[in-house]
C-alpha cells in the first residue's frame, strides 16, 4: 500500500517540545551514558541479540541442525498441533471449511478490484509473489529528508520528500537482466539541497514491485457491476505520452505462502497481530468497531481483538489501496471502503442482478477447495458471497434487519453484513492463506529422515553449514520457519522488544526486523515508519517514547510488559529492576546505554522456502538472482557506512569463495517445495487474468485454472534466470566505520 501521503504526520505538536527537552537531556547526560556503558558493557556477538562469538558448528545430521533451532517445518507444525491461529476464532467462525472456501474465492476474485481486474492474487499468483516484468517500477515515493535527531527519535519526524524520478526504467518499460543489481556502486549516494540522500554513480533507488490500478477518482460502487464508477485523474508520476499507466506499489510484493507463521506481516510489519475487523493496525486504530446483534440490545458496536491474526490484518490494506486495487485520491480525501466493497459483492442491482463469486474466471472442477462449488464449464461458483458468509460466520455478525447509516460517495446506509464486510474478508482470507503451508521441501525431508534425496545432497549440506556458520544467515533466518519474525520467536518468552548489540553500543529493537544496508535508511524507513495516526509502527519505539515521556501512546504497547530486565545473550542489565521480577516494568527506568532504538530502515526477515521462485529479492526488488543475494551479504551490504547507526551487526564482509557462494545457493534451492512449483494442492487456484503492461485494461496475461493435481509445467524463476547467475557484482567490500 502506498503510504507516501501523510505517513510522517505527528499525532501531537507537543511532541516537538518533549523532543527538545529530551535532546538537551541526552546532550547533558552524555558523560553519564558513557560511564553507564562502561559499567554495563555487554559481550560482543556475531548476530542480532547474540552473545559471545559463536564457534563453528559442523552439521552432519538433522539432530545437530535441531540443536541450533532448525527443524522440518512439517514436524514443527505437527508438534504445535497446527499453524498459529487466533484463540478466539470460533467466537466468530462457525464453519472453518466454508470460511476457507470464502477466503480463496475472495483472494482470487478479480471483481474485487475497482477496475474489474485487480485481485489480491494479482500480486501473489506465482509461488505467492509476482514475476511480471513490465511497468513494475516505483521511483521511491517513501524517501525522507535526512534529518535524524538522535538514537531514540531517529527519523521519526523526518518529512516525506518523495522521489518522483525514475533512474532505471521509465513507466511501462520492461525490466531486463542488465538492470541488476539496482545498486552498482556501494556507498555511492549524495545529499541533495533539499536534504534528501539520492543515488549517484549509476545507482538507482527505484523499487521493483507490482502494478495496480490507474489513478482514478472513486465515484462509487455499483451493485451488480464488475466496474466501480470513477473519473480518471492526471497522474503526475505514472504516465507515458500524456496517458496514465497503472501505478506501482512502493515495495516488492512478499510471498503469502507460509505468511501464517509471521507474527506481523508486510515488510514494515504494520499488519498487527491483533485483528480489529476494520484495518491493519489492531488496537492502534481507536475507531475500529464491528457491529454485533445482541439479544435484547439490537445492533451494538464492539471492539474486537483476535490474537495471532496478522494475516487478517494484512488483508485489510490492498482492497482499499488507491495504488493496488481501488480507485481513490487521498489528496481529496477520496477512498473506497471495505463496506462499499461489501455492497458491490453482496447487493443486487436495481434490475436484480448480483455478482457471482469469481464470475469472470473459471474454477477447475478438481480445485482442492472450490471444486465442489465450481460451475465447471461456465465461470464462477454455484453459490453467492452472501450464502458463503451466512454459512461461515455466526449469525450475530450478519442477521440484523436494521440498516446502518455510514454516508459514502455512493451509499448512504448499509446492512449489517455489508458494514462488517471487513471482518468477514479479513478472517476468511486469513484462513485460506493459513492453508498455504510449504513444508515438503528436500531440506524438510532430510531433516525428517537424515537421508540425502534428489534435492538435498552433499552440496546442499555444505551450504547448510555455511548458512549456520560463516554466512551468519541463521542470525536472522532462524527456527523451523527460517525467520525470527515468527509467532514462535515472539512467543518464546524473550518478548518482541529486545536488546541487540550494534556495531557500536547496544539498542532496543523489534525482533525479526533488521537494517541490513540494502538501501540508505532514508530511502524507506520500513519498521521506523508510522501508522495511520502518526504513531510509530515499532513497538520498541512506542515503548521508549512512552517511558521517556516523549509521547504517550493511546493504546496498549505490544511487548512493553515483556521486556526482559537482563538480556542473557548480551549479559547485561537493560533496566533498573526494582522489584526483581525479571521484567522492565513501565515504571522502571531503562538504563542510558539502552535508550536507543534500531528500527529505521529495518525490514521483516522473510522465510526462505520457495525463494528460488520469488525473485526479485529484498524489499526493493534490487537483486534478481539468489547468487546476487549471497554476494550482497558476502561484500557486507551496500550501505554499511551510510546506515552506520542503524545497521545490523552481522552485516560485515564474509570472505566467502565463489564455490561457497554456489553452495549457499544450492542450500536455498533445496527449500523449494515441488507442490508449489507445480501448483499442486493446496497451491492450486482458479483462472486469473493479469495486466501485461500499464495500459492493459483487459488482462492479456491468462493464468489457467489448476486443480489439486497441479500442472506438469513448473513455475519458472524471475526473468527465467539461472539462480547462480551473478550478472554484475559491485566492486569492493562495505566495511562499517568504526
From TrEMBL:
Presence of keyword Iron: yes
Predominant location category: other
Transmembrane segments: none
Subcellular location: Cell envelope
UniProt superkingdom: Bacteria
Keyword Heme part of the UniProt annotation: yes
Cytochrome c domain: residues covered: 98-237
Keywords of the record: Heme, Iron, Metal-binding, Oxidoreductase
PANTHER family found in the cross-reference section: CYTOCHROME C PEROXIDASE-RELATED
Name of the protein this chain belongs to: Cytochrome c domain-containing protein
Amino acid at each position: 500500500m502506498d503510504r507516501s501521503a501523510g505517513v510522517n504526520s505527528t499525532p501531537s505538536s507537543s511532541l516537538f517540545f518533549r523532543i527538545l527537552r529530551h535532546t538537551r537531556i541526552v546532550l547533558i547526560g552524555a558523560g553519564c551514558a558513557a560511564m553507564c556503558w562502561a559499567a554495563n558493557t555487554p559481550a560482543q556477538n556475531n548476530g542480532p541479540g547474540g552473545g559471545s562469538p559463536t564457534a563453528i558448528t559442523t552439521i552432519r545430521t538433522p539432530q545437530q541442525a535441531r540443536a541450533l533451532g532448525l527443524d522440518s517445518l512439517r514436524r514443527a507444525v505437527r508438534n504445535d498441533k497446527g499453524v498459529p491461529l487466533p484463540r478466539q476464532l470460533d467466537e466468530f467462525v462457525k464453519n472453518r471449511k466454508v470460511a476457507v472456501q470464502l477466503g480463496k474465492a475472495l483472494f482470487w476474485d478479480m471483481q474485487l478490484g475497482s477496475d474489474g481486474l485487480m485481485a489480491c492474487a494479482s500480486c501473489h499468483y506465482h509461488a505467492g509473489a509476482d514475476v511480471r516484468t513490465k511497468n513494475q517500477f516505483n521511483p521511491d515515493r517513501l524517501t525522507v529528508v535526512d534529518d535524524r535527531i538522535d538514537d531514540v527519535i531517529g527519523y521519526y519526524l523526518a518529512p516525506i520528500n518523495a522521489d518522483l524520478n525514475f533512474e532505471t526504467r521509465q513507466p511501462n518499460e520492461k525490466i531486463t537482466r542488465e538492470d541488476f543489481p539496482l545498486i552498482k556502486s556501494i556507498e555511492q549516494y549524495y545529499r541533495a539541497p533539499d536534504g534528501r540522500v539520492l543515488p549517484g554513480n549509476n545507482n538507482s533507488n527505484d523499487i521493483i514491485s507490482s502494478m495496480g490500478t490507474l489513478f482514478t477518482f472513486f465515484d462509487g460502487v455499483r451493485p451488480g457491476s464488475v466496474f466501480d464508477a470513477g473519473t480518471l485523474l492526471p497522474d503526475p508520476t505514472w504516465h507515458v505520452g500524456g496517458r496514465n499507466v497503472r501505478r506501482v506499489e512502493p515495495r516488492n510484493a512478499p510471498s503469502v505462502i507460509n505468511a501464517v507463521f509471521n507474527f506481523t506481516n508486510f515488510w514494515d510489519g504494520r499488519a498487527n497481530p491483533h485483528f480489529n475487523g476494520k484495518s491493519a493496525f489492531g488496537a492502534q486504530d481507536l475507531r475500529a468497531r464491528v457491529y454485533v446483534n445482541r439479544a435484547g440490545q439490537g445492533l451494538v458496536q464492539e471492539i474486537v481483538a483476535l490474537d495471532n491474526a496478522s494475516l487478517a490484518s494484512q488483508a485489510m490494506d490492498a482492497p482499499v489501496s488507491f495504488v493496488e486495487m481501488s480507485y481513490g485520491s487521498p489528496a481529496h480525501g477520496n477512498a473506497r471502503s471495505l463496506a462499499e466493497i461489501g455492497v458491490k459483492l453482496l447487493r443486487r442491482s436495481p434490475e436484480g442482478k448480483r455478482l457471482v463469486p469469481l464470475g469472470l474466471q473459471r474454477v477447475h472442477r478438481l480445485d482442492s477447495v472450490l471444486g465442489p462449488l465450481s460451475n465447471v464449464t461456465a465461470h464462477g461458483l454455484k453459490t453467492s458471497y452472501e450464502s458463503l458468509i451466512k454459512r461461515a460466520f455466526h449469525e450475530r455478525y450478519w442477521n440484523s434487519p436494521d440498516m446502518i447509516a455510514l454516508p459514502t460517495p455512493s451509499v448512504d446506509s448499509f446492512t449489517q453484513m455489508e458494514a462488517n464486510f471487513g471482518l468477514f474478508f479479513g478472517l476468511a482470507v486469513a484462513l485460506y492463506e493459513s492453508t498455504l503451508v510449504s513444508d515438503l521441501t528436500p531440506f524438510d525431508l532430510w531433516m525428517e529422515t537424515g537421508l540425502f534425496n534428489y534435492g538435498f545432497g552433499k552440496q546442499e549440506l555444505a551450504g547448510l553449514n555455511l548458512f549456520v556458520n560463516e554466512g551468519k544467515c541463521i542470525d536472522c533466518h532462524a527456527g523451523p520457519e527460517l525467520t525470527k519474525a515468527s509467532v514462535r520467536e515472539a512467543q518464546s518468552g524473550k518478548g518482541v522488544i529486545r536488546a541487540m548489540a550494534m556495531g557500536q553500543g547496544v539498542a532496543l529493537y523489534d525482533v525479526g526486523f533488521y537494517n541490513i544496508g540494502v538501501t540508505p535508511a532514508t530511502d524507506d524507513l520500513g519498521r521506523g515508519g508510522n501508522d495511520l495516526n502518526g504513531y510509530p509502527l515499532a513497538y520498541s519505539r512506542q515503548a521508549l517514547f512512552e517511558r521517556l515521556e516523549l509521547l504517550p501512546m493511546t493504546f496498549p504497547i505490544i511487548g512493553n510488559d515483556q521486556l526482559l530486565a537482563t538480556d542473557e545473550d548480551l549479559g547485561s542489565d537493560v533496566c533498573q529492576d526494582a522489584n526483581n521480577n525479571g521484567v522492565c516494568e513501565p515504571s522502571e527506568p531503562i538504563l542510558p546505554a539502552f535508550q536507543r532504538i534500531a528500527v529505521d530502515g529495518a525490514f521483516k526477515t522473510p522465510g526462505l522456502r520457495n525463494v528460488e521462485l520469488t525473485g526479485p529479492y529484498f524489499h526493493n526488488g534490487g537483486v534478481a538472482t539468489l547468487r546476487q543475494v549471497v554476494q550482497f551479504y558476502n561484500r557486507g551490504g551496500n550501505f554499511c557506512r551510510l546506515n552506520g547507526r542503524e545497521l545490523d551487526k552481522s552485516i560485515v564482509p564474509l570472505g566467502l569463495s565463489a564455490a561457497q557462494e554456489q553452495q549457499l545457493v544450492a542450500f536455498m534451492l533445496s527449500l523449494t517445495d515441488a507442490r508449489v512449483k507445480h501448483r499442486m494442492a493446496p497451491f492450486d487456484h482458479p483462472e486469473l487474468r493479469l495486466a501485461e503492461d500499464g495500459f492493459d485494461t483487459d488482462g492479456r496475461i491468462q493464468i489457467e485454472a489448476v486443480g489439486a493435481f497441479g500442472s506438469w509445467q513448473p513455475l519458472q524463476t524471475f526473468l527465467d534466470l539461472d539462480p547462480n547467475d551473478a550478472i554484475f557484482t559491485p566492486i569492493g567490500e562495505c566495511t562499517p566505520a568504526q
